Amino acid sequence: MQIAFGTARPSFARGFIPLYHSGETNRCPACTRQHWIVGRMVAECAFCGTALPLEQFSTYGGVHGDRPEPSAGSAPKPLRAAP
Known about the structure:
The chain has one helix at residues 11-14, and strands spanning 36-38, 42-45, 51-53. The chain is mainly beta. The model has no long low-confidence stretch (mean pLDDT 77).
């Protein structure tokens, strides 16, 4: 993408965040190949080594809703609010 001054903006400035989606065809954003070494949290391109976070471990734009709300009595005594 070109801007008015003729310099290309990096992909992160455009809002593009590549993620590895399991069960889908994933092309490497650097070399466009499709061979991946998939780990627990990232997938690495087998050709160029570009690492992408796995979709289920991405922290971009999401709120973790699986954490329970802390109860009032769960904090240590010095940190509890006085009644």
